[in-house]
Structures are given as structure tokens and as C-alpha cells.
Amino acid sequence: MNSHVKTELAPIPFVDIAAQRARLGTRIDDAVARVLNHCRFINGPEVTEFEQQLARFAGAKHAVACSSGTDALAMILMAWGIKAGDAVFCPAFTFCATAEVVPWVGATPVFVDILEDTFNMDPASLEAAIEVAKREGLTPKVVVPVDLFGQPADMDAIEAIANAYGLKVLCDTAQGFGATWNGRRTGSFGAATATSFFPAKPLGCYGDGGAVLTDDDALVPVLKSVREHGQGVDKYENVRLGMTGRLDTIQAAVLLEKLAIFEDEIAARQRVAERYSAALADICAVPAVDPRATSVWAQYTIRLPHGVRDGLAAALQKEGVPTAVYYRLPMHHQPAYAQFPIAGNGLPVCEKLAGEVISLPMHPYLDEAAQDRVIAAVRRALGA
């Protein structure tokens, strides 16, 4: 055997769910076994316990667990009676689920531009979008700020605008659950919050899952009715249109164990982000976190000049360093959503950033050796 042959390093996981699984070990096995033993696979006791602990963690009065983050958004719009002729304001730089649920209830999504530094909703663009909606004969009803990549949107500005125009605030913290704004956790803002427990999320289950968080006592029974086919006194009385939106008991059992280590994982993500930023700030635009906020770093997303990103991705791939691009096409350029109204003159910041962003591996179990490998590969690829 040639001793000079270079040994190839194993690829670095973009998100390492297996490392977390190894850490939790028999705790997950035991939690699932308890559900298998009691056989209450739908609405079992773990669901109620998880809802209580989730609400406590977020600082909200109530949590209603459900089948996905998308269904969480839809359940809220359905519970509020949002309908045809209503306008719902969404950032255009987000995953499609944020806006997808709006046409489900017959309403119209109106797309808003984002801030260049935080990637989150631009309050000035929101006000412009409200005027566009009014001119088109729509009734402004809901604004959906998204906590993109793990950082909360500017809740001070957005809540002030919502109050001025009579809008309900539906926070989409699918990527930002566990982060803070002015010392308060996401999930405690707005009239209601939707979050996701998709496996790759900072707090993820082993399948699909989601939750609604709210302080509105009256909203909770309506959400629970919507979640169960619009049931009334029992499942054979249907008082409103609903869905099958329940969280499986096994997923709730898994999430209880993951929630127990979540704060520790958030701190680990922060340490990774700090090392990345310290090592890369001289060669690319590293993420900016608003001084009023903390991030859970669902993604660590850098910005590069147009035309550089794809070359970086290819070079890193050869070194076993995966990357991802969120999002190549803003919502208003997606074929399914191109007919809906937008604020301003084409949402220029969304369009600019769509060609600049690229995300590096990020998870709580990314050790310093792996971080250094990512950093060195990025620097080599960018000629630094």
C-alpha cells in the first residue's frame, strides 16, 4: 500500500441528527416504548405533557400541538375565519409554506420585501404592501413575520404597524423557535405563533410535527376543534370546517426528550456561529444578528457576490463539505405564486439576496475540528 496516498475525510453532515440520537440514547428508546406499551397513539398523555412544557419554555399561556408547521399556520387562519377578499402579508424570501396556506382559505398573500442584514421582513415594505392591498380592493387582515434562519423578525416595528392598521400578527417561527427578542422567547409574540418540528429544525421530531402557541384563551378550543375535523361536543358533531391536524403521541414523546436538552443545544449552535463568524468575516458577509435578538441558528447563511456562490458550493463539495441555498427563487417568482400582489418595485432586496446566499453546515454537534475543516475549505475556495 502506498503510504503517500491521501486518506479522504468522511463528508461532514449538514445537519447531524444521528449525533443527537446518540447523545439521547436509551432516553428516546424508553420514551417510545412507553407509548408502545400504553397504545394511546393519538392524543396520548405525552401530547398534553409536551404542550404544557412547550408553552412553559416559550413563555406562552397555551400550546396546541399539531401535525406540521404548515398545518399550524393553516389552523390559525381557519380559526380566525380568514377568507376570500382578505390580505395576508408574507415575506417573499421564505419557504413556500408561509404563503401556501393563505390561498387554502381563499385569501390573498401579498408579498413583502426583506431587510438586507437580517433577511427578515422589512417594516417599511410591509406598510407599502398594505397600501397595495387596499388599492386592489383587499381587506388587510394578517401579517406573518418569519424568523428566518433562526433570528426573530423586528417585532417592535411589526407589532406597531399591525396595531396601527388593525392586523393580527401570526408569527412563523418554524426556523426560530427558541430564539429571543428583547429577552422574550419566540412563541410569546403576536396573536398566535406557528412552529415546525420537521427533523432538521433546531427542535425537531422523527417525522412531521408542529405547534401553535398563543395567549388567547378563546382561540385554543377553536384550534383544537379545527385540528379534529371541526368537531363540536364529540367527533361526530362537526361545527366548522377542519382537518386532521394532530401530533402523533410517539412524536410528542420524542420531542419531550429533545426539549430537555434544547437550551444546551442552542448554546452549542451559538458557539459554532461565533467561531464561523470570527474566521470568515474578512472574506464574506457573515450573518448579522439584531442587538435586540438572539438566534437559534437554524441555518448559518453567508453572502457572496453574484456569480461566486455556485463555484464555492462545487469546491466545498469536493472536500466533503455540503452546502445549501435557501432560497434561489423568492416567492413572487415561484410559478404557483407569481400572480399575487407585491409591495414596491419588485422586492429588490429579496431578488438580490436570492443570488448571494449560501448556508454552511450548522448543528450543535459540529465539533471544532469539523468547524475548522469547513472554515479552511471556504477560505481556500475563495482564495483567502
UniProtKB/TrEMBL annotation:
Q: Which Pfam families match?
A: DegT_DnrJ_EryC1
Q: Does Repeat appear among the keywords?
A: no
MF terms (GO), sorted A to Z: pyridoxal phosphate binding; transaminase activity
**Keyword Cytoplasm found:** no
The alphabetized UniProt keywords are: Pyridoxal phosphate
UniProt-listed CDD domains: AHBA_syn
Could you tell me which residues carry N6-(pyridoxal phosphate)lysine? K201
Which residues are catalytic? K201 (proton acceptor)
Which GO biological process annotations does it have?
A: polysaccharide biosynthetic process
Q: Which residues form a coiled coil?
A: none
Family listed: Belongs to the DegT/DnrJ/EryC1 family.
Name of this chain's protein:
dTDP-4-amino-4,6-dideoxygalactose transaminase
Q: Which organism is it from?
A: Ancylobacter rudongensis
